[in-house]
Design brief:
The complex is a heterodimer of chains A (114) and B (111).
Chain A (H helix, E strand, L loop, with lengths): L3 E4 L2 E4 L5 E7 L5 E8 L3 E8 L6 E2 L7 E3 L5 E6 L8 E8 L9 E2 L3 E5 L1
Parallel strand pairs in A: 2-11
Antiparallel strand pairs in A: 1-3, 3-8, 4-5, 4-9, 5-6, 7-8, 9-10, 9-11
Chain B lengths: L3 E2 L4 E5 L4 E3 L2 E2 L7 E6 L5 E7 L5 E3 L5 E5 L4 E6 L8 E9 L2 E4 L3 E6 L1
Parallel strand pairs in B: 2-12
Antiparallel strand pairs in B: 1-4, 3-9, 5-6, 5-10, 7-8, 8-9, 10-11, 10-12
The chains are: A mainly beta (114), B mainly beta (111).
Chain lengths: 114, 111
C-alpha cells in the first residue's frame, strides 16, 4: 500500500494563478481532509469529505475549493492564488470519523505564492 | 468553540533527559485525544490516542500520555529522550468528523 500520496511535492505560483493539488489514498477510507500548516499555527482544517461526492468546510476554507468525485481522490483547488496561501498542505484520510479513528497523513505539498 | 492548547512552543533537552509536553483541551464532554509527531521533512504519524479506559496511555517509541479529566489535560511524557526524538509534536482532539490540532511543540534533543 502506498497509503496517502500527494502531488505535486513542491510548487511556486505567482499571485493570481490557479492550481490543483491531488490527494490519493489506497486504503478505501471514507473520510478525507485537507490541512494547511503554518509556523506557530499548527494544522488548520481547510475542507474535508465524509464520502464520495461530499465536501464540507473546515476552519479556513476561504480561497479554496475541493472535489471528491472518486472515493480515493480528494482535490484541493486554488482559483486565484494569494501570498497568504503560501503554506505546507497536508492531506489525510481515515476509515471512519469516530473519535478513535486515526488519520493517516500524506507527505505534504510545499506551496509558495510570490 | 472547541480548542486545544499547547503552551510549550519550543523545548530543548539533552539526551537522557525526561520530557513532558503540555496539552490542554477545552471540550467538557466525551473526549478523544491524540498525539501526533512530525519528524523533520516527514508527514505526521500517530504516537498514541486516548478514547476511554485507563487514563495512562502508552504509545510507540516509549512515549506515554496521561488523561486528567479534572485538569482538561493530556500531557505527553517520555522518561529518557533520544536525539532521534527531535521533531514537532501535535496534540489533537476529535470533534464531530474532524480533529482540532494544537499549535505544536518543537522538541530539539542535543547529544
Amino acid at each position: 500500500n502506498a497509503g496517502v500520496t500527494q502531488t505535486p511535492k513542491f510548487r511556486v505560483l505567482k499571485t493570481g494563478q490557479s492550481m490543483t493539488l491531488l490527494c490519493a489514498q489506497d486504503m478505501n477510507h471514507e473520510y478525507m481532509y485537507w490541512y494547511r500548516q503554518d509556523p506557530g499555527m499548527g494544522l488548520r482544517l481547510i475542507h474535508y469529505s465524509v464520502g464520495e461526492g461530499t465536501t464540507a468546510k473546515g476552519e479556513v476554507p476561504d480561497g479554496y475549493n475541493v472535489s471528491r468525485l472518486k472515493k480515493q481522490n480528494f482535490l484541493l483547488g486554488l482559483e486565484s492564488a494569494a501570498p497568504s496561501q503560501t503554506s505546507v498542505y497536508f492531506c489525510a484520510s481515515s476509515y471512519y470519523a469516530g473519535g478513535t479513528a486515526e488519520q493517516y497523513f500524506g507527505p505534504g505539498t510545499r506551496l509558495t505564492v510570490t | 468553540a472547541q480548542s486545544v492548547s499547547q503552551h510549550n512552543h519550543h523545548v530543548i533537552l539533552s539526551e537522557a533527559a525526561s520530557l513532558e509536553l503540555g496539552c490542554n483541551y477545552s471540550y467538557g464532554g466525551t473526549v478523544n485525544l491524540f498525539w501526533y509527531v512530525q519528524y523533520p521533512g516527514q508527514h505526521l504519524q500517530l504516537l498514541l490516542k486516548y478514547f476511554s479506559g485507563d487514563p495512562l496511555v502508552k504509545g510507540i517509541k516509549g512515549f506515554e500520555a496521561e488523561f486528567i479529566k479534572s485538569k482538561f489535560s493530556f500531557n505527553l511524557r517520555k522518561p529518557s529522550v533520544q536525539w532521534s526524538d527531535t521533531a514537532e509534536y501535535f496534540c489533537a482532539s476529535y470533534n464531530t468528523d474532524k480533529l482540532i490540532f494544537g499549535t505544536g511543540t518543537r522538541l530539539q534533543v542535543f547529544p
